[in-house]
């Protein structure tokens, strides 16, 4: 089969590899769509804490059940399925509490295991048993279903933040995750949604969305602008959807007392210049982390797409064949598209 293999940092090779064979309990998926995201770019350029190379990348996956090993009753040949990439053990204390994205022996497709930038991928027995394959309703395309995973990560973040119709929410960054968070916040009934962005093209895209305010941070001081919009109080919650330290400190500085910060994007660097840490103490701020998504977040995300509560179709600005995955990653680097899907 054809696959894009990350051989080492900065070395992505399009090549022929053996098509995996199903063993006991395993399912072979014929890939139909796989999203390319900034995490894939990070894996390519600097590696990632869960990434083991050589590896076929790609973790936003939808496809068709092409084969199954003995003992698989959960899916049938020909089923259209979305793959939740985290393969939890199902037995540790986190798994038993439904926080399976924090599983002590998590294996993630596209990081520890081969992913969706290939014609086929194997879902291990443990994943099949734990329900990582979800049937896609007929009216949802494979490309839309591929966006289930990033939406599920946003579901995880906003459920930790417990956002509600009483909240004002600042989202920093209008890339695909910023837009998904804005759409999800609307579906969650958030009272006031403010999006901040620096890139002109993304500002124009964000202005088309049903959000209350888009702040151009190239022209305006974000924290001052937030204080003006909230009569000096600050926002109830903020989610920086970008890796910059400045956005992280701006998110914290823009919060009201008892405000909640969603620590959603991994940061480039780990000290926070421009923010006085004592502010967390004085203002009783809450900083909540979110990493990946659980199986229940994944189920909720596909239901939100299927019920048209979060419309992702309009976000897909580019579809590419597998052979052009390298140029897709370059588009992610240039931030020239919203969501990019590899289609098979
Ligand atoms: Zn991703
Ligand atoms: Zn576990």
Description:
With 344 residues, the chain is of the alpha/beta class. It has two domains: 178 residues, Medium-chain alcohol dehydrogenases, catalytic domain (Quinone Oxidoreductase, Chain A, domain 1, Alpha-Beta Complex); 138 residues, 3-Layer(aba) Sandwich (Rossmann fold), CATH 3.40.50. It is 30% helix and 27% strand. The chain contains twelve helices and 18 strands. The strands form four sheets. Strands 3, 5, 6, 9, 10, 17 and 18 form a seven-stranded mixed beta sheet that branches. The longest helix is centred in the middle third of the chain and has 14 residues. The two termini are 12 Å apart. The mean pLDDT is 95. The site of one zinc ion has 8 residues, from α2. The site of one zinc ion (ZN) has 5 residues, from loops. It comes from Desulfosporosinus youngiae DSM 17734.
> What's the quaternary structure here?
single chain
CATH overall fold name of the largest domain: Quinone Oxidoreductase, Chain A, domain 1
| Straight-line N-to-C gap | 12 Å
Hetero ligands: zinc ion
Q: Kindly state the mean pLDDT as a whole number?
A: 95
Helix content: 25-40%
| Low-pLDDT segments, ≥5 res | none
Shape: globular
> Which CATH C-level class of the largest domain is it?
Alpha Beta
- Determine Rg (CA atoms, Å): 20 Å
